[in-house]
Description:
Layout (H helix, E strand, L loop, with lengths): L9 E4 L5 H12 L3 E6 L10 E4 L5 H15 L4 E4 L14 H29 L2 E6 L2 H5 L5 H21 L4 E8 L5 H4 L3 H9 L9 H12 L10 E4 L3 H4 L1
Amino acid sequence: xxxxxxxxxxxxxxxxxxxxxxxxxxxxxxxxxxxxxxxxxxxxxxxxxxxxxxxxxxxxxxxxxxxxxxxxxxxxxxxxxxxxxxxxxxxxxxxxxxxxxxxxxxxxxxxxxxxxxxxxxxxxxxxxxxxxxxxxxxxxxxxxxxxxxxxxxxxxxxxxxxxxxxxxxxxxxxxxxxxxxxxxxxxxxxxxxxxxxxxxxxxxxxxxxxxxxxxxxxxxxxxxxxxxxxxxxxxxxxxxx
Length: 241
């Protein structure tokens, strides 16, 4: 069994009301972490943790929540920037509102949360920042100009921050999920779901827990020399396309 070195560490997970964020908050809680689950929607706290209603696009909301976490438990050691939204449309049909909304949450939200947490990690002697990208951020996808732009941007920020923060013993990595069976995805037409499976060489969709486990490993001592990388967790979906 791998020793993660995460017991009693303070962890923040954004977008934790459902899906991958929900699974991630609970996975870290199972490891004995003190988990603050953030979301703009209502949600439930992980066992032994807290739930905070936080708007990642608001610097004020984020700053208040970070202060509350630090006051309760001390310096955050792990930040999982998982919050994200979709507003899909083809280029010539996409509105300014659709584009701006996705940029605001998926890209600026990652910046806003990391900017608020990183100084505390520096003062605390180190930490781990994990950012949600996507395989579409690596290879593009039809009808997702806004979403792909954010997920590619997250990869760029990940690499910049790994360079800037490494001297402070802060590791920064991204995870690029493939087709994951979240509640939102499972509501899609069966034909589309089968097509997703058909493009995945492993013959199934991923589960939120698959991504949660990837985040946990990247945060753990087992990945202590891993920084500035993008870990694809996609069942080889790119190979299958």
